[in-house]
Amino acid sequence: xxxxxxxxxxxxxxxxxxxxxxxxxxxxxxxxxxxxxxxxxxxxxxxxxxxxxxxxxxxxxxxxxxxxxxxxxxxxxxxxxxxxxxxxxxxxxxxxxxxxxxxxxxxxxxxxxxxxxxxxxxxxxxxxxxxxxxxxxxxxxxxxxxxxxxxxxxxxxxxxxxxxxxxxxxxxxxxxxxxxxxxxxxxxxxxxxxxxxxxxxxxxxxxxxxxxxxxxxxxxxxxxxxxxxxxxxxxxxxxxxxxxxxxxx
Length: 249
Prior knowledge:
This protein is mainly alpha-helical. 78% of the residues lie in helices and 2% in strands.
């Protein structure tokens, strides 16, 4: 009887551990917002990076402890919306959208947050029978990294024309989150199954890119990830249109 109670107590504590990691991710997102308001953009970006690391860890901890739950999933989504939806948009708005782009910047950032909220809600209500190697729609942590990396690439700010491009980019990322494009899931990518020569080549390219472009490298990597995943969908769409046209003939 005592052993059964002890096991139950340990199991209850195990369920708390992933939530503690999740709330740490939320706290990192909160600190990012505070840093952006104070104008400490580099710290804000670092807190978003910390939140993304914790976001990966909480899922791994939950799976290892067999402590996944509906509460944990919903709580994780709410924390993700703050850390990867609100935090990066506050950062970008503070950094780029001054007068005369204030109102447009608010709208663009809101569309990004709305896209992230929709993406998280859709993910939660989608029942998946088996783990897949891709996500439908751009995951919100990747969208946050793509948006925040622009600030990291240009710490001194951008011109009015650059602000317009950032505005369009924020709306574009928001649209990708609610799209049906398939994005490779790096969480489920098994390194052991990759050819070592290809892995070495990819890692060498990453190192060379970071060495050569420094602050620009993160943005280039994120843009490359986005378009690498979008191109196959465009090809599939083109083939479907040709097949439909041939059937009509």
